[in-house]
Specification:
Radius of gyration: 19 Å
Shape: globular
Number of helices: 9
Distance between the termini: 45 Å
Helix content: 25-40%
Largest sheet: 11 strands, mixed
Order of helices and strands: HHHHHEHEHHEEEEEEEEEEEEEH
Number of strands: 15
Length: 323
Amino acid sequence: MRSSDLGNRVEARMAGGSRQEARGSKLEVLGSRLDTVGIKSEARLNAGYPFKRFKPEVVRSVRKVDITGQTYVEQARKAREMLMSLDPEKVKQVIEFHKGLNLFQALALAQREGSLIVPNGIHDRILTETTDPEERSSLGDRDRRSRDKQYLIQNYPACTGTLVIYEKPNVPLLDKVVFSWLQFNRRTYSISFVVPEQFQGKANCALVVEHPDFELMALGNNRYELKVDAQYVHKIEDFPEISGWYMPHAETGIPHGKKVEASSDSRYLWRIDKTHICSVGRIVGDFGVYDRRYIGAIDFWSARLGVAFMPLNVTPEKSDSHD
């Protein structure tokens, strides 16, 4: 499904009332903006897209050990816990955004340089718990709103360290999920995931895993396998069948449940209508109250977006020095 088609469908569903029409118009503009970052854009496939000469980096199952004896995965998990405990304004000071990376390269860079790919839940706090321009009107907030808007422009849209796995609507998860797509070099790529037995047999649910709790293994011929220990897989019940506004899952921030009205508490989910394995992307619109609440569960493997990293050598004690 093309991102422009997503924008049109979103606009159609959200029509009916001036308030809904205005929001639909914003989403239409946002859909067009997604095309500019290369999400399944046929135009870029046919226009000699300059990034196509690079092959995806192979993520190898090598684990670094630091001088304390902790493995890379252990350090990254501690960094993830530490980020969740910090004020989101402080989080913005200790994470680093890198632009122009596809998801393969982001995973390889994180492991090579010893970093955590910042998960969806952290991005959600940055986007929703820091400045909301339309909720602030006093003169003294103008400078902060300007800085905040610049931060969004510089860093988003962005892929997160949260992967979501789901099947077609009303199709139960079986023993394996296989997601395939056409890369910018016109080659077909695929990623498979062996579904743990306890998650098999149920339709309209999603499985979520967080970096660094998974490994991406190269099988050859552009095929990869996602390896995850079942204990690190989160099951999201009532995963939406269509895109729209839903309430976020408490632990992962992934929208689920019944469709609701747009609000500061709900999140807008973009999903595709086929089998899917990919990172969740955070997408922003025109920086209004609702424009920070868009979550894309669509194909980001090939798109060159922003990716936020948390260097593992930054400790809670060092981060406190920013106060």
